Amino acid sequence: MNKEEYLNKIGYEGALEPTLEVLKHLQKAHLLNIPFENLDIHFGHYIELDVDKIYRKVVGSNRGGFCYELNGLFYELLVALGYKTKRISARVFDSKKGYSKEYDHLAIIVEINGDEYLTDVGFGEFTFAPLKMEPDSIQHDERGNFMVDMLDENWFRISKIEGKQVVPQYIFKNIDRAFSEFSEMCQYHQTSPESHFTQKRLISRPTENGRITITGNRLKIKAGEEVTETGLEDEAAFDRELWHHFGVRIKKAPARAR
């Protein structure tokens, strides 16, 4: 991994000391410049938990990825910059199904001056800045208000505060995990008809005041309070908007049998 090339990809030109302030800028820059996407799953390209391959895809080929790829790669960047980090396994909340299986989501804990922070560049609509692992305090972020608390003595819970409601996002144990431990769930999300990643193709990235998303054959642009949605009538339209909004072109392989 060429960290200078990676930093150029996310448009970061600031200091590189392993401080909280630098981490904040790195996380936001990453989110604004590298989209969350599952397009490989729908265009016949298998995703492996191989850092070199992920780096060549995301940085070398101007792509995005899903949590294992984005947080897996960001973890390596943070290590290269001297941060004390660990990968964690998170179980994502669903209002109908409850919490998902272990290793459903990969996120990162960073220790700075004795305090721990959750950083996550692979969870779609989430925080622009790291969350301090400080239970029961509301933390204000550009993307909303969030809270860390304990579900029980073992599980940390991350929630978003929406009006008067506290909406769980995911839970995790603060345990360091090997990248390879996520392989089975990575395979599941690419192949199982039960995985939401196999249902529709998706690419999305936040902007300073909104979000741009293509889901299936629909383009949605949110800018402040204004939301516009457009149907993409064919693959040519999909490819055109994919390039226009994300700078992404994909070589489409034959679809894999599921």
What can you tell me about this protein's structure?
- With 258 residues, the chain is α+β, with helices and mostly antiparallel strands.
- The chain is globular, with a radius of gyration of 18 Å.
- It has seven helices and 14 strands.
- The mean pLDDT is 94.
- The chain is 27% helix and 31% strand.
- Helix 4 (51-60) packs across helix 5.
- The longest helix has 14 residues, at 20-33.
- Strands 2, 3, 4, 5, 6, 7, 8, 9 and 10 form a nine-stranded antiparallel β-sheet that branches.
Distance between the termini: 32 Å
> Main beta sheet: strand number and arrangement?
9 strands, antiparallel
Whole-angstrom Rg:
18 Å
SS strand fraction: 25-35%
Oligomer: single chain
Principal-axis shape equals globular
Which structural class fits the helix and strand makeup?
alpha+beta
Count of helical stretches: 7
Low-confidence stretches: none
Task: Give the number of DSSP strands.
Answer: 14
Roughly what percent helix? Answer: 25-40%
Mean pLDDT over the residues: 94
Give the SSE order as H and E letters: HHEHHHEEEEEEEEEHEEEEH
